[in-house]
Design brief:
alpha/beta; 2 domains; seven-stranded mixed sheet; 19% strand; globular
Length: 249
């Protein structure tokens, strides 16, 4: 099953020592499928999820990890240095959505990453598998992770395959490690280009300071797209969309 495969890959990218057993955090643990793999590997885990229904399924399945109902956009509520690593499968990109008026995706991402950084032990890693909607979303997530103190970058498995391509944000706490190579990368050059692109992309969101880039073209296009999905009538996008009008005299 794809969830188990991604969990296996995420744990592999953590580069955990063979013994003793580690304590891992599973962000967006859902019904505990990732946790099952962590348990099989002989490690302990605590899972966080915003969905009580999914956690109920995990309880019914009698998973071995401890479960916490929580919104990670409000922070990771654990003591400093508690975890030896963190994995997350297909969850972090949801922090880019403003589901409530009070939600600011950059602020929520920064809160998540800064509290996660604190909860992880020095020298540990977080590996977050995600499905970004576009390059802007990828930039926002990675830039907020860097602002929180993480180093690292994106590991892309099978970059030339539309179906098998997977993004893993591999983050280091404290000493910067060597970024693992993605599976199915034919040449090291492509890897270097991607990493270089990642570091240059970080600078674009520096001016945000925890606030969404309100009224920008991207912000307006996303808002229009959201309204279309809600079935509302929205004007077609043109080259004039989000352009400022000149003042009238």
């Amino acid at each position: 099953q794809i969830q188990s495969q991604m969990s296996e890959r995420a744990v592999e990218l953590l580069g955990l020592p063979e013994d003793p057993p580690c304590l891992l955090l599973d962000v967006g643990c859902g019904s505990g499928l990732s946790g099952d793999y962590i348990s099989e590997e002989g490690h302990y885990w605590i899972g966080m999820d915003i969905s009580s229904a999914m956690l109920d399924v995990a309880i019914e399945r009698e998973v071995e990890g401890d479960l916490l109902l929580a919104d990670v956009g409000q922070g990771v509520p654990f003591r400093a240095g508690m975890f030896d690593g963190c994995i997350s499968i297909s969850a972090v990109q949801w922090l880019c959505n403003a589901d409530k008026k009070s939600h600011s995706p950059p602020q929520r991402l920064l809160k998540f990453f800064s509290t996660l950084y604190t909860a992880l032990a020095r020298g540990s890693r977080a590996v977050l598998q995600l499905y970004p909607e576009n390059s802007e979303q990828l930039e926002l997530i990675t830039s907020q992770a860097m602002r929180a103190g993480f180093t690292g970058g994106m590991v892309v498995d099978y970059p030339n395959s539309a179906k098998a391509k997977k993004f893993f944000l591999c983050l280091f706490v404290g000493a910067s490690g060597v970024l693992p190579k993605g599976l199915g990368t034919e040449c090291a050059d492509a890897e270097e280009i991607h990493q270089a692109k990642f570091t240059s992309e970080r600078t674009r969101f520096r001016h945000i300071k925890g606030k969404s880039v309100k009224k920008s073209r991207d912000w307006i296009l996303e808002k229009k797209e959201r309204r279309r999905r809600q079935g509302k009538e929205v004007r077609a996008d043109t080259k004039y969309t989000a352009r400022k009008r000149r003042p009238r005299f």
